[in-house]
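Dear support,

We are seeing what looks like truncated structure output for some complexes. This example has two components. We would appreciate it if you could run it in full and send us the complete token output so we can diff it against ours.
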Amino acid sequence: MKYILTPEFHRNIWLKFSAFRLAVAPVFLLLLTVTAINLTREVSSYILVYSLVSIYIVVTVLWGCFEASSAVQEELRTNTWDFQRMSSITPAQLVIGKFLGCTSYVWYFGLLTLAIFVYIFGFYTPPLAVGAAIPLTQTANMHDLFFASLYLLFAGLIGQSLSFLVSLIAMTAFAGRTGKHRQPRPGNAFIAGVIASYMVFSNIAVEVSRDLSEKFGLSHSFSVSVFERHPVYRWFHWDISAEVFITASLSFFLFWFLFGSYRIARSELMYGTTPIGWAGFMGTLLIYCLGLTDPMAAAYPGQLLGIFSLMTFLTYAVMVFEAADTRKYARFVGYVQQGRLMKAFENTHKWIVSVPFMLIVYFFTLSRVPDQAGFLGSMATGGLMLSMMMFALRDGFIVHAVFRTGDGRNAAFKIVSYYVLVYLLLPTLHFSTASIKVQVWYWLINMMRSGVAGTVPDIVKTAAYYFPTPFDDYTLNVLPASLEAIVAGGILFALIRWQNLRNNRSSLEKPAV
Amino acid sequence: MKMVQVESLNFEYPEKRVLHDVSFDIDQGSVTALVGPNGAGKTTLLRCMVALEKVQSGKITIGGLDVSDHPRDVYHMTGYLSDFFGLYEGLSLRQCLTYMAWCQNVSALDIKKQVLDVAVEVGVDHILDQKAQTLSRGYRQRLGVGLALIHDPRLLILDEPSSGMDPDARIALSRMIRRLHKNGKTIIVSSHILNELEDYCTDMLVIKDGRVAEQVKLQEYAKTAARTLDIGITNIGTAQMDFLMKQPKLRVISTDGDIVKCEFTGNTAEQQQLLETLIKAQVPVYTFSGTVHTLSDAYMDLTAGRI
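Here is the complete output from our reference environment:
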């Protein structure tokens, strides 16, 4: 309880609750219930339950994600964040207090709605419909009621926790600035949370609609439930029922969203924070994903490639978010020189601990994918993976270099310009001559019609300069991508070194008095 | 005993270094004015001192603790009010102070007393149940100081505490800082308003271009620093002017009728000696007044490199 009843939770309760607000939710829901029951008695319960689910989603997902995404942003906007950072509050108290606190009224409203929903869905006997030819189902399926309610809870929690996490991550992306200049926009965090909630709700909680339809004798237009599509999930060698697997999966992601927030809070509160948490997330996510692959399936190489892509994407994303604080490199070197390895580890960029996970998947894939030529052969797949890794590192280094050259305020423009240049303008210029266009289109059309790549024209192979490509010959794809990554890394290294020398020189100068 | 020790501190934002090899000490129980032009690095320096920023190199010690290694312990002994601090507008002053007391692990049994004591200290005890959003600028500042003081820190750091305050509020703030100083707190105040700092500061640290330009103890400075002398001489002539200009440690700045404005770099005994010399030489002195330099003068002297 000491983690829930924190000062931060108390503060939010003071701010979010008043006698008026306490009364509004039950009065509104009571009015809705009475109105729905009296409006059309034939389908009253059906309308009511759908209204309640809609209200629940609006309240817990839309409102909840908004509250969660703007909690920290509000602290930064009103300049109260430094007070919290300097207080004795622990990271766990801060995260739990803030997360539960900022969504406390949302959950008060949402849980009341859910309680009425459970009653109507599970325990209320609907009246016989006027003119109904068959008696309606009178008993509720308690199993489905339990899981429908549980997943509705998860839909809200997953979205809110992701919004909260993304808002914290966005704040760290402004690490080069101070005070109010660190304010991230809450929009991205809100959208991320709503999408996550939607994925949970649309895939799982639509179970509600099927059972409702059965209970109230009405047809439904929702998709087939997950339970019907996948009654059993195979994870590694274990067959796990859908209910258990989905619940465990949602709990897994909910845990990492909250744990991620906790780690960022640790860092903000100036506790020593190593990238071990990030490594834990990458490792467990890798195991989770590997468990879902099927070594006997034809799509196995594709599944492994998908996992590698996920690892690469996470590495890429963390590199971009860490770009604002490239000062860590100098601190890392400084602590290594002092022999303070734990401090050096605390100042290690997360992308550095991500790379081993990419390599693990790479070598695992090479050992599992058949040693054959062609797109899904080990050589081509390996080439594609290595070139993806190198392009990710190249872009990451360039983004880091961009943030070294300014205060970050126009970094987005510079980075977008870079992407447009390397992924659009340069390839377009390269492939723009008429004869090349004919060659490329001819090859592409042939490949799509026949399903095999055939002899790849030389000009197509030069696409490897710009994009990850699945060629057997590593000198075509891995080598150019590696060279580009090395050059980008060299630019970043040279820039940091030059700036350090310049700064050291300027430190030796006397102040201009 | 030293409360703050800063050695070879360097701090940089990603694109540029803003603190260059900064070193200084601050005595326990002192009130230090941190002054310097805009963009000199004062706020960054304060944020580094209270462990809100990670330094690039160098060492900051507060109360014997290395800030980089023990930031959380430094928070316990430090109260910091930033230049743009915010309040929880929807809470009452009592709730704001109680919340901060909880956050600072003030014992549950002591919270009520501590809230009241701090409220009295900063002069908001009569409006404790008022919402923060209704406060004037002066009272907001007082509440901000109260929030920084709620855990009874040994070191209080105030960044531009009087900006935007009316004269009454500034006087109240000065009194409050003097009271806190009297109670044994070490205080660092960053401000542009030098006249106010003069009321309560014992030391001055001048920061310019991210470097320490000078650090002085104001009492010692007052003893040795140049002062302006206005010497009134009846029917002043060339001979008398020549005599004046020959006096040691005296520099004639200007004349206005019979009044000669001079800069004198001697101490009070030497000033007395000068007067005696003038009278013995039968210079018809009818007025002889000295003006002790203010903190503003000291700042101007320091930044002009005159001392």
